[in-house]
Amino acid sequence: MPMIDPFNRTIDYMRISITDRCNLRCVYCMPQKFRSLPETDILSYEEILRVCTEAASLGIHFIKITGGEPLLREGVSDLVRQLKHTPGIRKVSLTTNGVLLSRYLDALCAAGIDGITISLDSLDAERFRLTTGYNSLDTIIQGIHESLSRTIKVKINAVLMDNGGGLQSQWRDLVELARALPLDVRFIEMMPIGYGRIFKAVAHDRILQGLHETYAGIREDRASRGAGPAVYYRIPGFKGAIGFISALSHRFCRTCNRIRLTAEGMVKPCLCYASGIDLKAILRDPAKTNEAVCQALKEAVAMKPAAHCFIPSPQAPEGSLEKRAMVAIGG
Ligand code: SAM
Ligand code: SF4
To answer: pTM score, two decimals?
Structure first.
């Protein structure tokens, strides 16, 4: 039986953050002096697998491994392999900044990874450095090419910042990647969560208008629209699609299909609210059975709000909104 939330949405997808550490410092996600949790506060792989086994029995079929930077944690490919052998789990994918991708690609492929999303905001080396704090662009590009050569399904996710000049060439360069390579390039609107609050989001209608002005024959591709929040467009002659995940300008909540498990073991019904259920306490209590784990997952689904609310309102007062950095939640 699938899990259906109070707004009739089927919840079959779980994002799992396996670490709150990172080897980049994207300005909108993680501050330079972020204090990571002690290792004992992070769920072990055994605990994560226990949650996933119960979640799969309740209808969670799709898992996304995230972080922090998930490839920083040892044994990710073993986790992928075990998840792929968990009855009910159909697809396991990973989102990464790509810095360590080449190193772990063989092991991830052998484990049966179904797709890799690489976060990449700019193809300009200096802008990349200013955004992430590091000169890793070439390494990431290499990881993208190596992933494609192994015929892994690759998506690029880009968060744009309205920081004056260069915006047009920034999105154009990224879009052109999908002409040359068989991958989807998706733009994610900056969300006012954590350090994202400091930056102004680039409304996607602006980029879409630019796309229409630049590329004749561009059209929305409804067939590519999966259960997730992205809206896709096709451009004649391009190998990949262009997607938009427009959290702010076009609320995507009507089709929300997910819950989140943070690295410290909190199940979050919605990215934008602080509320959640402390699964770690249940997992580490010897008196609690797997039934209690299932119950907590069902409660999280029952708590899902109709929509996000990034701006405080009488229905969503300041105190109810998420205050933690995105790196601590998993995006
Ligand atoms: N380190 C991995 C990566 O960068 O893909 C996984 C974790 S990261 C938190 C997941 C995604 O969240 C990235 O694509 C990142 O760009 C996005 N993200 C972080 N802060 C954001 C914000 N304030 N608004 C929108 N997306 C954000
Ligand atoms: Fe690290 Fe990903 Fe956050 Fe960038 S977006 S700081 S790569 S967790």
So the answer is: 0.95
